[in-house]
């Protein structure tokens, strides 16, 4: 019988596999990347897309848990047609109360096809 973590790993890896094989130019996903075995999903997505946070001077914003964020488990990935202009994780009282994760806000501009 599979453990809950093994099941979660399989599901997230399958999602990452499916997303990596699409033509999507942006993806946002909670990868639960604190578990080492799930880093494969991150690597699979970054084989074709770029980690949006790393596009701005290597930002690494923790979003979990919202009351005292220490872990970065929420991610956004972008393709070449997307220029990331800002990344932030609001820490307002409302943001902290709304979820166990802080929102990850990505501002971007679409590049002209060329």
Largest sheet: 3 strands, antiparallel
- The top level CATH class name: Alpha Beta
- Number of DSSP strands? 5
Distance between the termini: 51 Å
Low-confidence stretches: none
Strand order across the largest sheet:
1-3-2
Mean pLDDT: 81
Strand content is 15-25%
Question: Based on helices, strands and strand pairing, what is the structural class?
Answer: alpha+beta
Instruction: State the CATH superfamily name.
Output: Endonuclease/exonuclease/phosphatase
* Overall CATH architecture: 4-Layer Sandwich
Number of helices: 3
How many structural domains? 1
Instruction: Using the coordinates shown, work out and report the CATH topology.
Output: Deoxyribonuclease I, Chain A
Strand/helix succession: HEHEEEHE
Question: Roughly what percent helix?
Answer: 25-40%
Shape: flat
Q: Radius of gyration from the CA trace?
A: 15 Å
TL;DR of this structure?
With 114 residues, this protein is α+β, with helices and mostly antiparallel strands.
Features:
alpha+beta; 22% strand; 3-stranded antiparallel beta sheet; 3 helices; Deoxyribonuclease I, Chain A; 114 residues; two-stranded antiparallel sheet
Q: Would you spell out the secondary-structure blueprint of this structure?
A:
Blueprint: H1 4-20, E1 26-30, H2 39-46, E2 50-51, E3 74-78, E4 82-88, H3 93-98, E5 105-110
Antiparallel strand pairs: 1-3, 2-3, 4-5
């Amino acid at each position: 019988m599979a453990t809950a973590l093994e099941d979660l790993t399989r599901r997230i890896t399958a999602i990452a596999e499916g997303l990596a094989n699409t033509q999507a130019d942006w993806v946002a996903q909670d990868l639960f990347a604190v578990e080492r075995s799930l880093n494969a999903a991150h690597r699979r997505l970054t084989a074709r897309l770029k980690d949006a946070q790393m596009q701005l001077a290597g930002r690494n914003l923790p979003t979990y848990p919202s009351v005292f964020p220490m872990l970065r488990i929420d991610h956004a990935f972008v393709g070449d047609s997307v220029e990331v202009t800002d990344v932030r994780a609001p820490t307002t009282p409302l943001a902290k109360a709304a979820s166990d994760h802080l929102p990850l806000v990505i501002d971007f501009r679409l590049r002209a096809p060329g």
